[in-house]
Amino acid sequence: MKAAVFSDSHGELCLMTEALRRTRPDLIIHLGDYERDAFALRQEFPHIPFYNVCGNCDIAQRSPLWDTVQIGPVKVYICHGHMHNVKQQLHSLYYAALENSASIALFGHTHIPCNEQIGGVQLINPGSAGKGRKPTWAELEVFDNGGVYCRILEL
After folding, report:
1. Of 20, 81, 133, 139, which shows the fewest CB atoms inside 10 Å?
2. CB atoms within 10 A of CB 76
3. Could you read off the pLDDT tens digit of each residue along the chain, which spans 155 residues?
């Protein structure tokens, strides 16, 4: 299964839409900032399973702060990251993933791409799909045997 993972889009939809049309993922995950971008993508691609959480810039939030998603045989913890203080450290995020029996934690908030392993948990930040630095996203592929391959790509 192939997942397209976006975060911190801040109103920029065009590049995400283009990436989704080009890659045709099996599911889409949006990690917050802006929640309305997630809703717009869900409308644009109603045939693709979609998961999202809200971020610190989302007002009148309608989405959860965190969730777990099953991608093939792998359980994934998803959040924006602000509640775990990810700009300072990743330990709280790591423990949240463990508490939810997840082997992958997807987060945003820092606008800096990250793909690192702590203990048995792979921590992945797709970077920012919005304005500012070079926009990036993550393509996460989960294989039937539980193997995981992640690429951080420019939009």
Report:
1. 133
2. 26
3. 999 999 999 999 999 999 999 999 999 999 999 899 999 999 999 999 999 999 998 887 889 999 999 999 999 999 999 999 999 999 999 999 999 999 999 999 999 999 999 999 999 999 999 977 799 999 999 999 999 999 999 99
Yes or no: say if 22 and 44 are a contact pair by the CB < 8 Å rule. Answer: no
For the domain covering 2-154, report its CATH number.
Answer: 3.60.21.10
